[in-house]
Amino acid sequence: MNIEALKRQAAARALEEVRDGMKLGLGTGSTAKHFVDLLGEKVRAGLNVVGVPTSEATRIQAEQCGVPLTTLDEVDRLDLTVDGADEIDSALNLIKGGGGALLREKIVAAASDRMIVIADDSKWVDVLGRFPLPVELVPFGLAATRRAMAGAFAETGNSGQMVLRKDKDGHAFVTDGGHWIVDAQLGRISDAPRLAGLLTSIPGVAEHGLFIGLASLAVLAGSQGIRVIERR
């Protein structure tokens, strides 16, 4: 079975958690895209839900699928967010942001009662860090922010190259929020919760891709079927 089919299986399993009347956070990325497609089918069949998209790309897709949308200015809390991940560990801590939507994804996840992360089982890791850690930065003072990031890495026993993400034209990649992204190639992240706190405290960091304690359930699809893991 190919990767896209596995992603769609995980999305379909997460859709079983959706109930009529729910307010949903709609994730960004290739796996979340399958969820929005399947959700649209349910909406066209009569399911009554409303969604908050985590990116402009997801907003456009959801509108095309007929999913009603709202914003976090119009609703207090979301019942459920369904999103993908670049890496998932056994504590359901995540690395996210490969698609560049980490800031909005984290805002929406934090405003939700539950977060389900969906993925093919290649995203399951013993230790986070093989996937480069995205850090969303304010362009002003970039060098100073990178020095502070290096200090946070050193303080937690991490090190690695920091690479400014570029778009296909070779310019700095710009997020929906107007920020840049530096991808930190750390290999194995020591003490991810502490590193997350240190990165958050750096003034030039808009957000980082460590999602600590936000996911309550992971749905992983593999050649042996679906695995559902709850956060301990």
UniProtKB/TrEMBL annotation:
The answer to whether the entry has keyword Ubl conjugation is no
The record's EC number reads 5.3.1.6
The organism is Bradyrhizobium sediminis
Q: Which CDD domains does the UniProt record give?
A: RPI_A
> Which HAMAP family does the entry link to?
Rib_5P_isom_A
Q: In which pathway does it act?
A: Carbohydrate degradation; pentose phosphate pathway; D-ribose 5-phosphate from D-ribulose 5-phosphate (non-oxidative stage): step 1/1
What's the protein name? Ribose-5-phosphate isomerase A
Could you give a single Gene Ontology term from the biological process aspect? pentose-phosphate shunt, non-oxidative branch
Q: Which superkingdom is the protein from?
A: Bacteria
List, from the UniProt record, the residues annotated as the active site of this protein.
Answer: 105
A Pfam family reported for this protein in Swiss-Prot or TrEMBL: Rib_5-P_isom_A
Q: Gene of origin? A: rpiA
Q: Give yes or no: UniProt keyword Isomerase.
A: yes
Its job? Catalyzes the reversible conversion of ribose-5-phosphate to ribulose 5-phosphate.
The subunit structure is:
Homodimer.
Family classification: Belongs to the ribose 5-phosphate isomerase family.
UniProt keyword annotations, A-Z: Isomerase
List ligand-binding residues for substrate.
28-31, 83-86, 96-99, 123
User: Known catalysed reaction(s)?
Assistant: aldehydo-D-ribose 5-phosphate = D-ribulose 5-phosphate
Q: Which Gene3D superfamilies match?
A: 3.30.70.260, 3.40.50.1360
Q: GO: which molecular function terms?
A: ribose-5-phosphate isomerase activity
